[in-house]
Amino acid sequence: MQEATTKPVIELDGLRRNFKVGGETVHALRGVSFTIGEGEFVTIMGTSGSGKSTLLNILGCLDKPTSGEYKLDGVPVRTMSKNQLASLRNHKIGFVFQNYNLLPKTTAVLNVELPLMYNARVSARERRERAVAALERVGLGNRLEHMSNQMSGGQMQRVAIARALVNDPAVVLADEATGNLDTRTSFEILVLFQELHAEGRTIIFVTHNPEIAQYSSRNIILRDGKIRADVVNDHIMSAAEKLATLPVNDDD
User: Fold this and answer.
1) Which of 118, 174, 222, 241 could join 50 in a cystine, given CB atoms 3.0 to 4.6 angstroms apart?
2) What digits encode the pLDDT tens for the residues 175-222?
3) 227 near 207, Cβ under 8 Å?
4) In angstroms, rounded to a whole number, what is the distance separating the alpha carbons of residues 199 and 158?
């Protein structure tokens, strides 16, 4: 197992998650342990049934382990109430989903403001300023008032990334974030993730696509609820260089 040398953001120790299905117990996670340090870009891979989705839900504070410990930015998660989990999730995690999860017929800037609406300490003016800055960061400063249903898939995913960044989270958790995108647009999004990584962001990218692991700093592979590999990538490929070799989309 690779140990993080920087401040730990994710700490898992002997994580298990069991489910009752009918009269049987399904062991979705069977003693998973790893640490992810601040500033790492980690891909987590696994086929269907590997425990990847269960692990994602626990990392995202959407579920709690049956046993074992999970600390997010130093905070123990397993004994938290649902309200405590929701608060931790909102303040510490930025989510990026395969299906974008944007509000339809709502402007880009309002979609990005949404996580800040749960923070009473952020005024409406600051909320707007932070949302605009996040959209400018992902290259959509000229699309602030565009409705989400008027955007391409790549633009919608950029809005989703801006929304994930607006709370300055401890970790960005991406779930198949390029799964619905064509090859060129996927690499445009990977370029953005590599830029965020270069800025010191902690990124966990859950995927079934082995190619993406070539662009992250570390790859964890799950199978049958256990870690089968945990490898540092000493030769990170450049998504920008790959993007430069791809044909431009006709609708760009």
Assistant:
1) 222
2) 999 999 999 999 999 999 999 999 999 999 999 899 999 999 999 999
3) no
4) 17
How far apart CA 175 and CA 84 sit, in angstroms, is 23
Q: Phi first, then psi: what are they for 91, rounded to 5°? A: -95, -25
Beta-ladder partners of 41: 203
Structure tokens belonging to residue 14: 């002997």
Q: In sequence order, which ranges of 114-251 are alpha helices (DSSP H)?
A: 124-137, 153-165, 183-198, 239-244
Residue 147 and residue 106 in contact, taking contact as beta carbons nearer than 8 Å: yes
Instruction: Write out the two tokens for 215.
Output: 């662009």
pLDDT tens-digit series, residues 130-172: 999 999 999 999 999 999 889 999 999 999 999 999 999 999 9
C-alpha span between 171 and 118 (Å, rounded): 18
